[in-house]
Structures are given as C-alpha cells and as structure tokens.
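Reviewer 2 asked us to include a model.

Predict the structure of this chain.
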Amino acid sequence: MLNLIWVSFFLLAFLVSLAKLLFWGQTDIFVQVIHAIFEMSKLSFEISLGLVGIMSFWLGLMRVGEKGGFLTAATRFLQPLFQKIFPAIPEGHPAFGAMLMNVSANMLGLDNAATPMGLKAMKELQTLNPQKDTASNAQILFLVINTSSVTLFPVTIFFYRAQQGAADPTDVFIPILIATFVASLVGLISVAFVQRINLLDTTVLTYLGGMTAGIGGLLFYFSGLDQESMQAQSAFISNFILFSVIVVFISGTALKRINVYDEFIEGAKEGFKVAINIVPFLVAMLVAIGVFRASGALDLLLDGVRWVLAGLGWDLRFIEALPTALMKPLSGSGARSLMIETMQTHGADSFAGRLASVMQGSTETTFYVIAVYFGAVGIRHVRHAVACGLLADFAGILTAIFITYFFFG
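Predicted model (structure tokens):
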C-alpha cells in the first residue's frame, strides 16, 4: 500500500506538471518540482539531526520509568478491565500479560517495548484460536485497541513541533488526549457490539466511566474559559503534567536504589540511533509530498474538497490538514511527513499545523498494525477488524477537528 502511494505521488505530480506545461504554458513548473526535491531532502536531514537531543532525553527518561516499575504499575491497573472485555481468554493465560504490557507501553509512549510485546500477545492469542487463518474475537479486539490506543505522552509529536519552531510544542497535549480517548472508546464499543461483549459490567463501567468523566471534566472546565485563557490554561496544565511525570519517574526510580543516571544514559543512547534511522523514511516521504505539492497536484485535490464543502457554509481551515488524516490509516511515516510538511508550509502554530499534530496523535496506523500483527501469525481472514479499526480512526479524526476548533479556533 505504501509503495503504491509513494509511486502515485511522483506519477500524479508529473502528469499535473505536464498538463500545466502543455495547456497553461508554465515552463518553470519542472524547475519548481526539482527545487522541491532538493529542498525537502535537505529539510529531512535537518529535522532528523535536530531531533537527536530531545529524542535522547525522552528515550532516556522512558527507560528510567520502565526500570522504576511504572510500566508494571500501569499493567496492574488495567488487568481487571482486560479480564472482563476478553471473556474467551482463560484466567492466567500468558496472553494477558503480553497484552497488558503492550497497552501499558503504548500509553507511556514506549514504542520500542510495545511492538515486541504486541507480537508476543498475538502469538499467545493464536494458541487459543481454533481457525488459524482467521482472526479470533480476542485477536480482533486486541488489534483495534492497538490501532486506537490512548497515548498519554505523544512525545514524538512534541519533537516535531519543537523542531518546526512551535512557541509551545506541548500545547496540543490535551486535544490529543481527548481525540485518542474518543477513538479508543469508539473502537472498543464497535467491537463489543459485533462480538456481544457486555460493556455494562460493573468493572467495565467503572473504568470507562472514570476515564470518560475525566475527559468530560476537562472539556467542562475549558468550555467556561475564553479562547486566550483556554490556550494559556491548556499550556500550563500540559507542561505541569509532563514535568510532574519527569520528576515522578526520576524520584520513584531513585527510591528503588537504581542508578537513575546510568539508566538514563543507556536509554538516551538510543536517541541518536532512532533520529538517524528515520532519515531515509523522511527523505522518501517528504520529497514525494514536496513534489506532489510543487506540481500543484495537492492544491488541486484540496481545492476539489473546498469546492464540495464551500456550498455547505463550513469553515474550511481544516482542509489544509486533511492530507494527514487521509494518510494516517495507511502509513504512519507518510502521515508524519504530511504533518511536518503542513507545519513547514503553514507554520507549527497555525491552525492547520496544530490540527495536523492532533490528527497525527489521535489514532495509530490501522493497515500497518493489521499487516504486522496478523501477518506475524499467518492470519488471512481479518473479519470485522478493518471496519472497526477504520471506525475508530474516523472518530479520532472527527474529534481532532472538533477539539482543535474548540481550543484554537
């Protein structure tokens, strides 16, 4: 899928450029396209290099939190809920431990720990699956939870916003939290409806009710503020929470008599590797998107959407961030590149730049997760996994648009 998208960017850019040359006499169009290739290649490397420091810090901190037992604590917290929504899994089965570790790691932003645990969980669930080439109910629910998982600390989005010059890179923290929660809730409800899972169980209602009340409380509080106060309060709360997490991770790990500094250094070493490893992916996607925009193909696409929606009297500012939303279910790296390109074009603190960031943090990459997780255990028939995953994506994107207008509109 990603291969098709990438090739299509170049082919469509060439066709649109050729049309502009032949029918409108724009002889400089290919100069602009080639200039975009050089500029976006340079930008890709600069972004990756600029991420080394902040990436190293957060990866070091996450290792400290992991060693301090915060991943284990999150796992224990979620265990009663999982036992209720996965009724087909026997109590004490190894799949529970792997699933809980995976979801906990995703919540804490530990992507490097989440994927191996997710693959292990899928393999454990496969041992309970009577039809080895067809996804079981438990496997589908676990996958949809992954594709829409609540991310408490979307630090990679903060990295890119800081890199693109955002005045306060974390001002999208609360909007992302709300959008990803709604996506997760819709994903869970959709799977529960198909699989007849009882969400009215006391334990399930306690968890979901508590989380919903928390999100609702945030919205109620902010709804009573004017736009300026809302943004100021959001920035304060976001930064206070993030710095509190830093202090809790460090102090909690130190109280266990673990050498916090050494663990931080070990984790931080991965920052350079991660930042350098994303260079080829950024170059590939940013150059393709740059060519697509320089040719005018992207503008044609967005103008078509504007034309359709203009007659409805809608505020059309969200359309500039729409490419990120359309790419998100298909490719994480592609959506990330489109988010960066949107911030580069319109500014990190523009409405479109903020909305693209919230969209990027609202859901996971559905088709990628399906391909990796189901492919690892040889599942070919995914049943309702795609429909439920895309429904969660759609809910997350709609919420991202609404909540960005609410906070920054």
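The chain has one domain: 2-7+19-408. The radius of gyration is 22 Å. We have added this to the supplementary material.
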